[in-house]
Each structure stands twice: as structure tokens, then as C-alpha cells.
Write a structure and sequence with these properties.
Blueprint (H helix, E strand, L loop, with lengths): L2 E3 L1 H8 L3 H9 L16 E2 L2 H13 L4 H10 L5 H38 L7 H7 L2
């Protein structure tokens, strides 16, 4: 394991900014090397892979807490646990899609009311939002 990357170089290679790396360290997703006497921490090159793993998992909708669990499972034979996490993520996505579809239908209905309404009666969207 080579420790030849500065935080800036590592962040560039991983496609993130330095503050993202620091945030992941504060959240416990990445290890922070000890600060040597010269003042510059050096990071192992494989840390770039960990950052990319985190970013790809986030793109799939996993939370940082879930990603932390995935990182712990990474080197073990825990396919069943990982699969369960992915299946749970799909359930959450399906729920969100259902909610988004309902929101879309409601907004489309309000827009149709606006298009058909009379200006003197006011905006149906505003009336719906202020209704008790």
C-alpha cells in the first residue's frame, strides 16, 4: 500500500473536491492518515477506489449510512446482506415513484383548472395551497 497521494490529488483522481473527502472522513467512510512531521498527509492510491465506490452507491440512491455498511461488507462474503440492502433500496424507489406520480397528477389537474378557470375567481393552485 503506497501512501503517495495528497488529498488534492486524490480528490481530483476520484472526481470530487477536497471538501467531499473531508466530509467522508468526518462521517467515518474514509480513514484519515496521521499527520506526519512535514505536515502533509499522504493517502493510499486505493482510497480513490473507495471514493468512487461511495459516489456510485450514492448515485444508486444509497444513503451514507447504508454506504458505510456496504463498505464494511465489501471484503466479506456477504452477498445476501448486500442484496437485501439493494432490494430495500428498490422498495424505497418504488414508493417514491408512486408518490411522485400522485404529485404529478395533482399538479396536472391544477394546471387544467387554471387553463379552464376564470381570472376573476383567482388562481386554483394558490387556492388549493392555502386551503385548510
Amino acid at each position: 500500500m503506497t501512501r503517495d497521494l495528497t488529498i488534492g490529488r486524490m480528490a481530483r483522481l476520484a472526481g470530487v473536491n477536497v471538501e467531499t473527502v473531508r466530509y467522508y472522513q468526518r462521517r467515518g467512510l474514509l480513514e484519515e492518515p496521521k499527520k506526519p512531521l512535514d505536515g502533509y498527509r499522504r493517502y493510499p492510491s486505493e482510497m480513490v477506489k473507495h471514493i468512487r465506490f461511495i459516489k456510485r452507491a450514492q448515485a444508486l440512491g444509497f444513503t451514507l449510512e447504508e454506504i458505510s455498511g456496504l463498505l464494511r461488507l465489501e471484503n466479506s462474503c456477504a452477498c445476501a446482506e448486500t442484496r437485501a440492502l439493494a432490494a430495500h433500496r428498490i422498495e424505497l424507489i418504488d414508493r417514491k415513484l408512486k408518490d411522485l406520480s400522485a404529485m404529478r397528477k395533482s399538479l396536472a389537474s391544477l394546471i387544467r383548472q387554471c387553463d379552464a378557470g376564470e381570472p376573476a375567481q383567482g388562481c386554483p393552485i394558490i387556492h388549493t395551497l392555502v386551503r385548510d
